[in-house]
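To close the section, here is one more complete example, presented without commentary so you can practise reading it yourself. The ligand is zinc ion.
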Amino acid sequence: MSIQVSLVKERRSPSELEALWKEDDMADGGKVRAMVVIMRTSGCCWVRSGGCTMCGYREASLREVTEEDLLKQLDQALSKYKGEPFVKIYTSGSFLDDAEVPPSVRARFYEAFSGCRRLLFESRPEFINEATVAEMPPNVTVALGLESSDPKVLESSVRKGFTPDDIRRAGLLLKSRGLGVRTYLLLKPPFMTESMAIRDAVASARFADEFSDEISVNPLNVQRGTYVERLWRRGEFRPPWIWSLIEVFKTLSGTVRARLMSSPSGGGAQRGVHNCGECDKAALDAVERFSFSQDPADLFVTCGCQAKWKAYMESEAALGTPADLDRDFENELILRT
Ligand code: SF4
Ligand SMILES: [Zn+2]
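Output:
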């Protein structure tokens, strides 16, 4: 990180929220308004060990955030709260990590939002235990970043620092107490071809179904300052196609109990999940409709680039590489259909 970025970062007040907005989500089987709160905290404990290969959250964390700062952030969130049935609290780390959000602060959040239908936050599995689960009010949903059910992918590609079984244990504990679980999967971790990524996400969703109410498939988007960004700049990584995301949903639809969903960050941009540019909006709209309806008919969208996506996967298989063929070979007409 440059000195300049570091100075800008430290100028941000630790007692102010990073962001807050309202959006649609689901609660009790229906579409509802949700308040999304992005907090400033000291950040994810795993970042201090190098972090995950695709995670740019270190940019969102501050060196020191006190209990008082966190309570001021809660006051700000409450001043904007208009009774939305769903509240989502993101900390760029783990809400259940005492070093990031002390138990006394967590208790204030639980109390403040005890009246809403759903309260969601994220946590690594090592912080999910009998004690932290016992503190939770019944409206809690914990979001678990499984990413992939393949232990080798988690270890070498994502560098997650835990195993799929750690997530399974945490998910089953939460479910046994009647709490909600939203599991995140990462579509296309580094070093995977497009077709490997589709197979990995499908297998991971089947693994997560046992302990998840919702499975959110997050296509990898290239964040600044990450290992994945270095691969991407060298043409060694292409973010997934939206067709691949649609393919994952078509394959899983009707075969898992959990609700399938995706709200891709950076969708349609070069750093995010994208198609040819012409059809990106229509394809992302289809994904959004499906995320609410679960009706596979909502995934229907067509474009000439669908054939190019298929040719892309064949080329990857033939060349045995996950490199960005769009970028390297487009001018040589290898992928022209
Ligand atoms: S992806 Fe999650 S666990 Fe990994 S470094 Fe980022 S915040 Fe931490
Ligand atoms: Zn297209």
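Once you have examined the tokens, check your reading against these statements. The chain has twelve helices and eight strands. The two ends are 42 Å apart (CA to CA).
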